[in-house]
Amino acid sequence: MAHSPDRIVATFEVRHRQYLDETGTALCELPALASDGDFLRRVYRGMKLARALDAKCVNLQRTGRSGTYATSLGQEAVPIGVASAMRASDVFVPSYREGSAQIWRGVLVDDILHYYGGSERGQAWTAPSAARDLPTCITVGNHALHAAGVAAALKLRGEEAAAVCVFGDGATSKGDVYAAINVAGAWHLPVVFVVCNNHWAISTPRSRQSAAETLAQKGIAGGIAVIQVDGNDVLAVHDVVAEALARARGGGGATFIECLTYRINDHNTADDSTRYRDPREVEEHRARCPVLRLRAYMEQCGKWSDADEAALSAEIAEEIDAAVERYLNAPGEDPGAMFDHLYAELPTAYEAQRAEAVRHGHG
User: Fold this and answer.
1) Is 360 a catalytic residue?
2) Fewer CB within 10 A of the terminal residue: the chain, N end or C end?
3) E strands along the chain, which residues?
4) Does residue 9 form part of some domain?
5) Residue 47 belongs to a domain with what CATH number?
6) Is 267 a catalytic residue?
7) Within a domain: residue 298?
8) How many folded domains does the chain comprise?
9) Active-site entry in 42, 87, 276, 286
């Protein structure tokens, strides 16, 4: 019998996790947190707040009272599922669509408004649970390297904590993310990478970004754990992130999580997605709404009612309106403020620039 020159040296698999279908019906035995009414209400509130704040921020931008804004409409389960699984001691490394996760961790609605209004106040957080989280990253993918660096520091210090980095599907096509995956595996770092696969990197569809069958498998090459999850099922997102964090804190290394969801709105308020997306595709995914899915499940369990919904909507509207009022009436900042959060001690080379900015600002 002839001997084959080829032999299998390794095999891999990518598992997908989902607990609730689109109607909020359980597909299998649910984790314990699914029966925790207080947890469910907190998570639901977080997603509802995200959606209401998004709508308000878009209105502020459209009326010239805020800057370019990226909503999370349709994918609210990802940031809330991630944040709700974290401890205060963990370090959050977000992109620009995770404002609701930052709020969960203690950042004020006012801070989010100030950030998108161009104020340095927007990242000067005071909550201890967010004090060492990294600021919002606009540059696609490079914060994955920052997260790996944070995780290396946590490991060297012997802290029982992990870094959590969230980015979009487009970021996985960048070398920064590949390098971060590689070092996380090689150095056995306590970091969790979460890719929010919302199908579009601005106008580039997922199908044109990568020939990989899944994005999750990109972590396999780095030697780290991987899993794919229904990103519109907040229970499943929370569960896989909680497991990954427990593994990371316990010395088990990094995890790469792919959350399948969809961006309903334009990429941001400077984009017009009708130029590159089929409206039928958008409507198909709109029906898979993560907010309605959790509400349906809670109603089926007798943990939510129409009266609860009305009360929560009114409460959130009041909270956001009050924050917007404070934001719009806040005094302007000295132009020198843009230098205040760059370094612990401003280098001499920047002192003259700061003085010039202040001088022109007062002139």
Assistant:
1) no
2) N
3) 16-17, 91-93, 163-168, 191-197, 200-201, 204-205, 225-230, 255-260
4) no
5) 3.40.50.970
6) yes
7) yes
8) 2
9) 276
